Amino acid sequence: MEFVEPIKRLDDIKAIKKILKKHSQRDLLFFVLGINTGMRISDLLSLKVSDVWDDKKIRNFVCIMDSHAGEEKAFYLNKSVERELKNYLSSVDLDQQDYLFKSKKNNYPITRQQAYRIVNQAAKEAGMSEKIGTHTLRKTFGYHAYRKGIAISFIAKILNHHSSSETLRYIGVDKNEKQLVKVDVNL
Questions:
Q1: Cβ-based neighbours of 166, under 8 Å, separated by 6 or more
Q2: Is 179 exposed, middle or buried (0-12, 13-18, 19+ CB in 10 A)?
Q3: Number of H-type helices and E-type strands within the chain
Q4: Per-residue model confidence as pLDDT tens digits over 30-86
Q5: What are the pLDDT digits (tens) for 154-187?
Q6: One-character DSSP codes across 131-143
Q7: What is the chain's mean pLDDT, rounded?
Q8: Contact at 8 Å (CB) between 146 and 17?
Q9: Is 102 helix (H, G, I), strand (E, B) or coil?
Q10: Measuring CA to CA, which residue among 49, 59, 26, 41 is closest to residue 98?
């Protein structure tokens, strides 16, 4: 497996979203869900409609058993994810037990290889030269959470890392790099 980068520039994220929206609502949702939750690719691909939709509304959290951590983990579904989920679920005919990222060829989810092609091709079309793959989604989540002031210890827990330095390396941040963090309590 090659080392891949997080998508650090917000303009690149916007460009990829625009490209994916033209291609497929499913693929856009896959990307948005990945960069907004930090879920592993294997967990994303195994999601069923019932994991995100309770037959009336979008769930607030996706709860999955994390085989690496040996515990259940909850991932928050923010407004960006909620919007794309609503758009996607209203445009397809899926049952509660269908895979969320169902292949167009059968009743199984898209493959890891297809997921890679979706992300990689969109990044190339957006003009990105960095190495991009499915792990990029998770790294992008961690990078932007860190840049928005989320404690690195909390991000490490979400990503199931053992140390903050491991997480900083993983998300492509030099721990000696100076970065102003906006702590906006906004009371």
A1: 156
A2: exposed
A3: 9, 2
A4: 999 999 999 999 999 999 999 999 988 999 999 998 767 678 999 999 999 999 999
A5: 999 999 999 999 999 999 987 676 766 666 676 7
A6: ---THHHHHHHHH
A7: 92
A8: no
A9: strand
A10: 49
